[in-house]
Specification:
This protein has about 120 residues and is mainly alpha-helical. About 70% of the residues lie in helices and about 0% in strands. The protein is built from 5 helices and no strands. The longest helix has 24 residues.
């Protein structure tokens, strides 16, 4: 499951570069440097997702991913609070993305804990 999670983050991060206009569109207007934030978050997702797949980097990557998920949550909240800006998406789906953030954090947290000593 760790590999699946890592690969999902790498793919999501790569999508920041393949579909930059989408991410720019969902940036809350109160945040500065939209393009830079999209690219930095994309790089972070790719690097941390890859690190998660290594034994040596999994704990650091997991904590980094938790921080990243929290950092991108304002974009998801912005979308849910302003569904009129995103008519192509159901408002229900926009709200359902918010608990998904919590589920992702819980999944990633499984790899953030200290390793068991045998």
């Amino acid at each position: 499951m760790k590999w699946l999670l890592g690969v999902l983050f790498v793919i999501a991060g790569a999508n920041h570069f393949l579909n930059t206009p989408f991410y720019l569109n969902i940036m809350p207007p109160y945040l500065p440097w939209h393009t830079a934030l999209v690219y930095v978050s994309g790089v972070a997702e790719c690097v941390l997702g890859a690190m998660l797949c290594t034994r040596r980097g999994e704990r650091l990557a997991a904590w980094g991913l938790i921080a990243l998920i929290i950092a991108v949550t304002p974009a998801n909240v912005h979308m849910a609070m302003h569904p009129e800006l995103y008519p192509q998406y159901s408002p229900v789906l926009l709200w359902l993305r918010l608990p998904l953030q919590g589920a992702l954090i819980a999944w990633v947290y499984c790899y953030a804990r200290a390793p068991r000593i045998s």
